[in-house]
């Protein structure tokens, strides 16, 4: 199999899983480890991947991954995390769901909850819940980002400050090794901070791919949250730090695709 055939599939696997390893790819394609290392180096030189020890990850930087790619990335993990998050949300409560494909997955898992007040700056969340008669949906004002239907800016933050939510659910673009929660859009960061400030209980939903990425703007720290829902063990000593901070961590691994029955 030529590299022109392997490269697109390697990228698709990286988008799906967030990371590729040399050993797994070599076995998958039936080629040598050296061949895969060359493939990954070529893709890194082209800016399509970033090399890490033992493999490669999607590139990080000052620009986020395109929205449709984010929707596909770690989709099974996002669904599992969303299901675990929905289990933390009681009926008859007020919640905020912010911008992101992870929070959109949470919205989809809330379809069977009753009597919710959902405030959001995410047009996709509003559309997901638009046909739910017993769910009162309020959309904040603000400047709409055409890339993902997100509403950001001072108008958005001003609208959020008019509420006090039972639960605020946010996503992020990256999670630093010291527990800092990161994003790309400074205006979105301001909105996320306002959400946390106006929520009695705050939850972060973020899958394992965020551990391997970086972004320039800081939302806050895991220390500021009540719960972090993810799908893989936290890197380094971050789990111990969360315990010290009083931030509960819940792991929601996706279903085993090879499981039967």
UniProtKB/TrEMBL annotation:
Residues 3-58 form the HTH deoR-type domain. Pfam families: DeoRC, HTH_DeoR. It comes from the Bacteria. Transmembrane segments: none annotated. Gene3D superfamilies: Winged helix-like DNA-binding domain superfamily/Winged helix DNA-binding domain. InterPro entries: Carb_Metab_HTH_regulators (IPR050313), DeoR-like_C (IPR014036), DeoR_HTH (IPR001034), NagB/RpiA_transferase-like (IPR037171), WH-like_DNA-bd_sf (IPR036388), WH_DNA-bd_sf (IPR036390). The keyword Transcription regulation applies. This is DeoR/GlpR family DNA-binding transcription regulator. One of its GO terms (molecular function) is DNA binding. It comes from Jannaschia ovalis. SMART domains: DeoRC, HTH_DEOR.
